[in-house]
Amino acid sequence: MLNPTLYHRIFRASAWYDLLITWPFMTPLTLGWFWAMMGAGHALFGLQDMPALSVYAVLFGNFFGTVVIVWSLVRLKWNDIRLARYDAAARFLFSAWMLVALMNGASPLIWGFVLVELTWGVAQALGARKSGAQ
Length: 134
Prior knowledge:
Elements: H1 4-22, H2 28-44, H3 55-78, H4 84-103, H5 110-126
C-alpha cells in the first residue's frame, strides 16, 4: 500500500498520461497522422512497414480513443481515487490484449506501451494506506 498523497499523484498522473497518449486515436484525421508517425518509427528502427489502416481499424481506433479520453477526463474532474482500482483493471486488460497482438505479429514498439500500462496498473492496484492511526 502506498502513502495516500503519492497514490493520489499516481492516480492523477495516469489520467494525464492517458490524455497525452490517447488523443491521436480520437479522430480519423489524428489517427491517420499518428499511424504515419508509427510508420516513420518503424522505418527509423528498420522494422517492417506498418499495414494500411482499414475503415474498421479507424472506427475501432476512434472508439478506443474516445472512451479513454472521456474516462481520463472523468478521473481528472471527479478526482476520486476510488476510480483507481477500476483504472488498474482496465490497464491489465489492455495489457493482455496488447500481448495477444504482439504474439500475433504486432509492432514491437507496442512493448513500450505494455510496460507503461503494467506499471500504472500495478501502482494503482496497490492502493493507498488508510489515513490516520493504523
